[in-house]
Write a structure and sequence with these properties.
The complex is a heterodimer of chains A (339) and B (443).
Chain A lengths: L3 H13 L1 H18 L1 H4 L21 E11 L2 E11 L16 H37 L1 H16 L2 H12 L4 E4 L1 H4 L10 E4 L1 H27 L2 H8 L4 H37 L9 H9 L7 H28 L11
Antiparallel strand pairs in A: 1-2, 3-4
Chain B lengths: L5 E12 L3 H6 L4 E13 L4 E5 L6 H8 L7 E6 L2 E2 L5 H10 E4 L13 H11 L5 H14 L16 H13 L5 E5 L7 H18 L2 E6 L2 H7 L2 E6 L2 E7 H6 L4 H8 L49 H16 L4 H8 L7 H12 L6 H15 L3 H12 L2 H4 L20 H16 L8
Helix pairs in contact in B: 4-5, 4-6, 5-6, 6-7, 11-15, 13-14, 14-15
Chain lengths: 339, 443
């Protein structure tokens, strides 16, 4: 399906573009961390250590107001003291308000974000492309019906729609045993399962499929009138044959480009949902930001570190999207700003 | 003579505008675009029937409707005795194997994401013929047969030139051993030198495999080169059909004559020949002329009985009348040009428009009729102006619709032999028109 010419374009665009290389590097690092989080993380991300809360990252200092009771002259007094909290190499990016290691949490949070981003986008692509190609290929009333429905979906703000759907369906999630932990490669103290937030994935897909439907419909409309489609039909090719062999392969390029951009958008949406507490995820960048929000004035790192992780992931994916867009189809305009 | 392989009978394909949801809700009458408007012909086994006509005359729609890529509005197509539009299941499958199409555009007719081999074997894959290895072998053989080399089988279309792409398209049409191939302008996108090669390939394959062709083109020399018989199309209708040499040597229909006239010739005697192009544009198929569809441009428009003006004059008068009837004359603008804001100097208006519309001298009686019409126009009465001209200059060509008579070389023109019912209709019209007292322009 990918022709040598396409590969050549991808390569030449990659060698020309520094940003594309940067994007690939960023995403590769994040993917690596997400895959091997149990091996890489210094601590169990859920392990609490109430003696070591709000430790700042290495190289920073923080003071904390401590309230203690002391015996002074035979009287019990409440004393407020400013204490300097020491950084420790054990928690290079510090700890949060419950003493959990911020670095470990951010590493494990990458899993949630990427799982939701990839699965959510995959479902959205399948759904959107099916609807869009059906509408574009058949046209007429089928097109009217499907695309008006899609327009109605578009009319809802995606976050509101997502929250409403989660409210409707609850927060179902699937726990898959982590193969690295189960096989004993990683330390047994790490969380033994990967949480697949099913509802969130379904919801972000339902919120985002419309974009794919619109792009796929447009592509199908133009491919439908190509002579090779007429040729296939004159040979006796069924609609299914024409769609699978001709319409779909020739519609994929802009869909691929849109998909990379949508992964970023979906990661953001997942973070928003986690931040607002709707996703049910306990180990996610958005959730950590929400946790850290109330400590922002004193312990800024709790929210900032996962926030930077989101920025890195979104920027990296968008850079890859730009690269694909430039390499595959110089004619297509940015579809960004989706959702 | 054996039965024809393909028989097209009264085929019609209309497209409807004003057919969106809103139009349906508001009950707007859908407007028909008559792309193919009652076409009948036969294609005999083993022959090549050429179809020529200007752009937009419905040639390609005819090809696609004939192949049942579009549903017809009316009429029928019979393929080897079977009604094509009633086929289903296995019978339709068989038709799809026996009849193939080769398209015009060397770029869009091949899927850019398939290799030459995949493209050529697609019909085999669709009809589940042979194993993958057998199909590949077949594709290699076909590539060689159409003048490419077997080791190009894994290349993509963009690696081929336009002529080579058309060869691949032809190989695809040949892959499943069809009997009938519709060639929809197969060489019109190619350079002249490449055209000849591809045409020769088409001719060779036809001889070798006993193929029947329907060859669609707008280039007369190409059609002459390859066709046994030629059908000339104008505005969705066949106006003349006959053996190639007869069509080219003694064309009967004025449109065919004009079409042949308009071709530049490579002959020193012809150097100073003024190429007579056909005047005007093809009328919109949305609203085709009544009667003969070529009458708005015909250099041999028939005059009503009793009228005898020079042909060029009659043509000018008819064109002028058409402009009035269609509202193409801007009366306000004309008054402005005359420079009379109060619209009192009617004579100046009449002179101005008279000079603009006519190059030919007008006989006295006709001068008076034309001026009378323009005077009505100056008063803003378009209806009367049109009626004045219509009464005197109405041609049988606009009242009687010509048809193709039977025979080997029929043409649809009232000047020539016509079927009995058309002749009868014309006689009836002329008798009626004569009685209405033509020749004395009313004052």
């Amino acid at each position: 399906m990918i022709s040598p010419r396409t590969l050549r374009n991808l390569r030449s665009e990659l060698s020309r573009s520094l940003l594309a290389k940067l994007g690939i590097a960023i995403l590769a690092v994040i993917l690596f961390i997400a895959l091997f989080a149990p091996l890489l993380a210094p601590h169990d991300p859920t392990e609490q250590d109430l003696d070591n809360t709000n430790i700042p990252p290495l190289g920073f200092t923080a003071t904390e107001n401590q309230t203690t009771s002391e015996m002074v002259d035979g009287e019990v007094k409440i004393v407020e003291k400013q204490v300097v909290v020491n950084t420790t190499a054990e928690h290079p990016l510090g700890t949060d308000s419950l003493g959990r290691d911020v670095l470990s949490r951010t590493m494990f949070g990458a899993r949630t974000s990427l799982l939701v981003g990839l699965f959510g986008t995959a479902i959205a692509v399948v759904l959107g492309v099916t609807v869009g190609i059906t509408a574009g290929y058949y046209g007429g009333r089928i097109d009217d019906a499907l695309m008006r429905f899609a327009d109605v979906m578009l009319a809802f703000p995606s976050l509101v729609l997502a929250i409403a759907l989660i409210g409707l369906w609850g927060q179902a999630s699937l726990r898959l045993p982590d193969p690295l932990v189960a096989s004993g490669i990683a330390s047994q103290t790490m969380p033994e399962s990967i949480v697949l937030p099913g509802t969130v994935i379904a919801v972000v897909a339902l919120v985002n499929w419309v974009w794919f439907a619109r792009v796929a419909r447009g592509e199908a409309l133009s491919v439908r009138d190509q002579e090779y489609v007429k040729a296939a039909r004159s040979m006796g090719g069924s609609d299914l044959h024409v769609i699978l062999k001709h319409v779909l392969p020739n519609s994929l390029t802009p869909i691929l480009v849109l998909a990379t951009i949508q992964i970023a958008a979906i990661i953001l949406l997942e973070s928003s949902l986690s931040f607002l507490g709707f996703s049910g995820a306990q180990l996610s960048w958005g959730f950590d930001i929400a946790q850290g929000r109330q400590y922002l004035s004193s312990s800024w790192w709790i929210a900032t570190v996962p926030g930077l992780a989101i920025v890195a992931a979104v920027v990296g994916i968008n850079l890859i999207g730009d690269w694909l867009r430039d390499a595959l189809d110089p004619g297509i305009e940015g579809q960004g700003g989706a959702s | 003579m054996t039965d024809p392989l393909v028989r097209v009978d009264g085929l019609e394909k209309y497209y409807y505008e004003n057919d969106t949801l809103l139009d349906r809700l508001t009950g707007a009458e859908p407007e028909a675009v008559r792309a193919v408007d009652g076409v009948s012909f036969e294609v005999r086994e083993g022959e090549t029937l050429g179809v020529v006509g200007e752009s937009g005359c419905g040639k390609s729609t005819l090809a696609e409707t004939l192949m049942r890529l579009r549903e017809p509005t009316g009429g029928s197509v019979t393929f080897d005795g079977d009604p094509v539009y009633d086929l289903s299941g296995d019978d339709l499958d068989a038709f799809r194997r026996r009849a193939q199409v080769m398209f015009q555009d060397p770029f869009s007719s091949l899927d850019p994401r398939m290799t030459a081999g995949e493209i050529i074997t697609e019909p085999l894959a669709i009809h589940d013929v042979g194993t993958v290895a057998e199909r590949r072998e077949r594709a290699e053989t076909l590539l060689e047969e159409v003048g490419l080399s077997a080791d190009q089988i894994d290349r993509y279309p963009h690696e081929f030139s336009g002529g080579q792409r058309q060869r691949i398209g032809f190989a695809r049409a040949l892959a499943i051993d069809p009997e009938f191939i519709v060639l929809d302008e197969p060489v019109s996108a190619l350079d002249v030198s490449v055209q000849a090669q591809v045409l020769n390939l088409l001719a060779d394959m036809q001889a070798e495999r006993d193929l029947t062709y329907l060859f669609i083109a707008h280039d007369l020399s190409v059609v002459r080169h390859i066709s046994d018989r030629v059908a000339v199309m104008y505005l969705g209708e066949v106006v003349e059909i006959g053996p190639t040499e007869e069509i080219f040597e003694s064309p009967q229909h004025p449109y065919t004559k004009a079409l042949l006239e308009s071709v530049p010739r490579a002959d020193t005697d012809e150097r100073d020949r003024v190429v007579e192009t056909i005047r005007g544009d093809v009328p919109s198929p949305r609203n085709p002329p009544s009667g003969c569809s070529f009458r708005t441009r015909c250099p041999e428009l028939i005059q009503p009985p009793g009228l005898d003006v020079p042909q060029a004059t009659f043509r000018e008068i008819s064109d002028f009348r058409t402009r009035i009837e269609n509202g193409d004359i801007d009366v306000d603008l004309r008054w402005e040009q005359v420079g009379d804001a109060n619209r009192e100097d009617r004579a100046a208006f009449v002179d101005s428009l008279r000079e603009e519309a006519f190059d030919e001298p007008l006989p006295d009686a006709d001068e008076e009729t034309v001026r009378e019409a323009i005077r009505a126009l100056a008063d803003g009465d378009r209806e009367t102006a049109a009626a004045t001209l219509r009464e005197r200059y109405r041609s049988p060509c606009e009242a009687v619709e010509p048809a193709l008579p039977a025979g080997d070389h029929p043409d649809a023109c009232l000047l020539n032999e016509q079927p009995d019912d058309v002749e009868a209709a014309r006689e009836e019209w002329e008798a009626e028109h004569d009685a209405s007292g033509v020749g004395t322009p009313s004052q």
